[in-house]
Amino acid sequence: MSVIHLENYVEDKWQKVSVDPVSIASAVTGEIIAQTSASGLDFKALSDHARTKGGPALRQMTFHERASMIKGLGKAIMERKEALYALNAHSGATRKDGWIDIEGGAGTLFSTASKGKRELPDARILIDGDTEQISRHGTFLGQHVYTPLQGVAVFIDAFNFPVWGMLEKLGPALLAGVPAIVKPATTTAYLTEHCVRIMIESGLLPDGALQLIVGRVGDLLDHLTGQDVISFTGSAETAAKLKSHPRIIAESVRFIAEQDSLNACVLGLDATADSPEFDLFIKETVREMTVKAGQKCTAIRRAFVPAGLLDEAEAALKARLAKITVGDPDMEETRMGPLVSAEQRADVAEKVQTLSEDAAIVFGDTGPVKLNGDKASQDAFISPILLKCETPWQAKYVHNTEAFGPVATLMPYHDVSDAIALCNAGKGSLVMSLFSHDRKIGEDFVLGAGAYHGRIAIINRDCAKESTGHGSPLPVLVHGGPGRAGGGEEMGGVRGVKHYMQRTALQGSPDMLSAITQNWLSGAKIEASSPHPFRLKFGELEIGKTIETASRTITLEDIEHFAEFTGDTFYAHMDEEAASANPFFPGRVAHGYLILSFAAGLFVDAAPGPVLANYGLDSLRFLKPVSPGDSIQVRLTAKNKKKRNEDYGEVRWDVLVTNQDGEPVASYDLLTMNAF
Ligand code: NAP
Question: For residue 600, what is the domain's CATH number?
Answer without folding.
Answer: 3.10.129.10
